[in-house]
Amino acid sequence: MSAVVETIEAMERPPLSMGSRLEGELLEVSMGPQHPSTHGVFRMNVALDGEIVRKLKPVFGYLHRNHEKIGENTSYLGSMPYTDRLDYFCSMTNNWAYALSVEKLAGIEVPERAEYLRVILAELTRLQNHASLLGFLLSDMGAWGTPLMYAFREREKILDLFESLAGSRMMCDYMRFGGCRVDASEEWLAGAQQIVDRFPKFLDEFEELILGNEIVIGRTQNVGKLSAELAVNAGITGPMLRACGVNYDIRKIDCYGFYPRFKFRIPLGEHGDTYDRLMMRALEMRESVEILKQAFAQIAPGPIVNPKVKVRAFRPPVGEAYGRIEGPKGELGFYLISDGAPNPYRYRVRPPSFINLTVLEDLCLGHTVADVMVILGSIDIVMGEVDR
Amino acid sequence: MESLGEIKSRIEAAVFGAKIEIMQNGSPSQQHSLLIDNEHAVAVARFLRVDPALYLDFCSNVTGVDWLDRVVKKTTKVKKIVDGQEKEVVETSEEKIPGYLEAVYHLYSITHKHGPVIIRMRTSDRADGTHLPSLTPVWRSAEFQEREIFDLYGIRFGGHPDLRRILMWDEFENYPMRKDYHEPDDYEWEPTPHDDVMEKAKVHYPPRPEMDGAEKITSQP
Amino acid sequence: MSQIDEQLRTELQRQGVWVTSMQDLYNWGRKNSIWPLQFGLACCAIEMIATAASRYDIARFGGEIFRPSPRQADLMIVAGTVTKKMAPQIVRLYNQMADPKYVIAMGACAISGGPFKQGYNVLKGIDRYIPVDVYIPGCPPRPEALLHAFMELQRKIDEQKLTGANKAEFLKPDQPSEFPVPRFGKHDLEPSANRDVFQPPTIERQS
Questions:
Q1: I need a surface site. Which of A60, A203, B33, B218 has the fewest CB within 10 A?
Q2: CATH number at residue A210
Q3: B184 CB near a chain A CB, below 8 Å?
Q4: Which of C112, C187, C200 sits opposite B173 (nearest CB)?
Q5: Contacts with C139 from chain A: Cβ below 8 Å
Q6: Are C42 and A85 in contact (CB under 8 A)?
Q7: A333-A335-A341 Cα angle (round to 5)
Q8: Is the predicted pLDDT of residue A250 greater than 70, yes or no?
Q9: Residue A203 in domain
Q10: Across the interface, do B183 and C119 touch by the CB < 8 Å criterion?
Q11: For C137-153, what is each residue's pLDDT tens digit?
Q12: Cα angle, residue B40 at apex, residues B34 and B43 outer, rounded to 5°
């Protein structure tokens, strides 16, 4: 990040909406798009009074890859690999959200085994996403990579599972309309079960390392408090909303997939500050382990794809549909308008990270620069989704 | 949750002068939407947010859609006298619908845990009349999404606190998601072009009469 | 590798004398301590972080210290899609790096635009504006591929000569170390490519 007062060129200066109402001597700093934290190409124009943030305007678009325009020029199935690259940590849940929307649009049913596989993979994705997030946030705070190494150690185990099932570590392209692409063998399920059984031990170790640490507590408690009313009005979803105490989890509300068959709790926070958001992720990982154990017990052999769905020349009926799931970052939705052609007429992604950033300025006002990175880390953004 | 017809009649009773139309959705998703007029949009939105039965406090998704000028063919069966006999003849009529831009809002309620209620607003045309009222004062989640629609479609939202480009750079001068947008021509190096990319690449080097694979590729010295 | 007779060298080593040339020593030091710039754009950045993590461990190749500041870095791994909005910043970062500097284009997007090539905001490859040393195909390339590219780069550094006609580019006084930064135009970046750097192969027809 660079702190320049007057010698920046016009196009880099923070926008006039910030500069025209400065009181006294405020230092305008552009944090990003290349910065030591690992959140991708995200830029924030902040106006500082010493160390205190007085104004903050985020700048997006550095990873705008025209995903929606490409979606209009590609067939429905051809867009599935592009959804992998939206939130590149959680390719399985992105695939599921897209498959769900198309299944809503065309009225396709999914067989039982495919639904169980979808739940298993989605919860595994949630585990590795939350673990990586805690690792990244700690590394931003100055722990310089050690918690990240622990988180990535577990993530590598889960990525090995993905690779042996879907063929790729990250960009899995696994879901299809009406089911899944490849069936999971019994050895795979046994291996996955072993990893999940050992996960609570890692969680205990990780929580003891991180969440009981007094530096973490001192830096995250009472920092970035978000009230429930603002969160609901600003469209915040996911663990950030539940940290404010609002009980809204799409797995329980929309009851998509086979989630009604599993017993799991929804952790809720009290204060809405950064520490609560971290605790949300840690507690949700434990609940995911519970869901996985039940799914492994309940899954039975069967078909994994609906045979009535045409793979080639797939033309859904004319109309539109909005399908959403509870992704690890929040509500991930796909809005599709079809006019009967093989390509969608309008293909829209509802990105949770983008909308969760609406309140970034409100959260950071009055805090120091160091807190800004901690707050940003706790919102859990990934630029592939923000910019699409 | 009540049906759309009931919601429509309650809105029309509560907001004087509001003109609501139910848009049917032909797909199995059964997600029908309400088309509201631009003048009373903010009042309707406020009613939807505070009404005790609906309480749609969560605006989940704000989308822009570009509809070009369309010709819709309608077929009707008409009884006509042909060769002295009354027969049913199929007559096709064409209706020209001028193009417009649309903003679609998906609303949910967190308190009552129901939804979605989908509302739409249309601009009058795709050229000068691309103004719509902003619903950001009602739902803050529309702030960034309406900026994105302004950036990519060109709809100006009146009453938006900070309407400027969000994803493209500020000097950019087009609305890329519109259906009639032509992307810039940087197709000078396309190793394996086909279909429409081939057409764009042909401008830069001599066209190849055979399909690719018959060329010998050498580097420049 | 060097011009010293191998037998003489082994004989001297047995006596406890180690002989090398300045070029070998210089290149050995440089190639085993490459400091990458901590800079990731998109999905490939996650594979880059996975390479730096404990399983694939880029530290054993010397690349452990990812410097946040371009002034202190030797290597820029362009990992991820380069968009037109980001391209001027990448060229600026490259200009700020000190010689000798290297660029690895990681992933299909950095090489040529990748799966997002048909986009209005996607730059079709970072080699339109800055010179690239190693290209890694893949979407995303596995961490082992990045390590392989790292080793290729080490081999390339090893072969760079310090003197003579074929000496390394960064030692020639007339070679530019900074490249012009593109500006934001109304529809595209201006210029859309740097003709001194971007020299794609010509396509000839077989007659």
A1: B218
A2: 1.10.645.10
A3: no
A4: C187
A5: 171
A6: yes
A7: 140
A8: yes
A9: yes
A10: yes
A11: 988 899 999 999 999 99
A12: 95
Mutate to test the interface with A, among B49, B57, B63 (most CBs of A within 10 A): B63
Contact C202 B215 (CB under 8 A): no
What is the three-class DSSP state of B89?
strand
CATH 3.40.50.12280 fits C35-164, yes or no: yes
What ipTM was reported for this prediction?
Answer: 0.86
- Does any domain span residue A327? yes
Per-residue confidence (pLDDT) for residue A141, from 0 to 100: 86
Q: Report yes or no on A127 lying in a domain.
A: yes
* Contact between A14 and A30 (Cβ < 8 Å): yes
The label of the residue with tokens 């507590």 reads A217
Give a yes or no: residue A56 inside a domain.
no
Cα separation, B172 vs B152, in Å, equals 11
- Residue B135: pLDDT over 80: yes
pTM, rounded to two decimals: 0.89
List the single best residue of A12, A62, A156, A162 to mutate versus C (max C Cβ within 10 A).
A62
CA A182/CA B22 separation, integer angstroms: 42
Is pLDDT of A318 > 60? Answer: yes
Which residues, in sequence order, are CB contacts of B199 under 8 Å at separation 6+? Answer: none
Residue keyed to tokens 């077989």: C206
Residue pair A176/A142 in contact (Cβ under 8 Å)? The answer is: no
Which residue in chain A has the smallest CA separation from C116? A65
Task: Sort strands C102-106 and C134-136 into parallel, antiparallel or unpaired.
Answer: parallel
Question: Quick check: B206 pLDDT over 90?
Answer: no
Considering its fold, how many domains does chain A have in total? Answer: 1
**Residues of C with Cβ-Cβ distance to A169 under 8 angstroms:** 47, 142
Domain enclosing residue A80, as ranges: 67-386
pLDDT greater than 90 at residue A288: yes
In degrees and rounded to multiples of 5, residue C200 shows phi and psi of -70, 155
What is the percentage of chain B residues whose pLDDT exceeds 90? 18
To which residue do tokens 């989640």 refer? B141
B81 to B78, B87, B134: CA distances (angstroms): 10, 6, 55
Q: What domains are defined for chain B?
A: 4-66+101-170 (3.30.460.80), 185-221 (no CATH)
CB contact under 8 A, B197 and C192: no
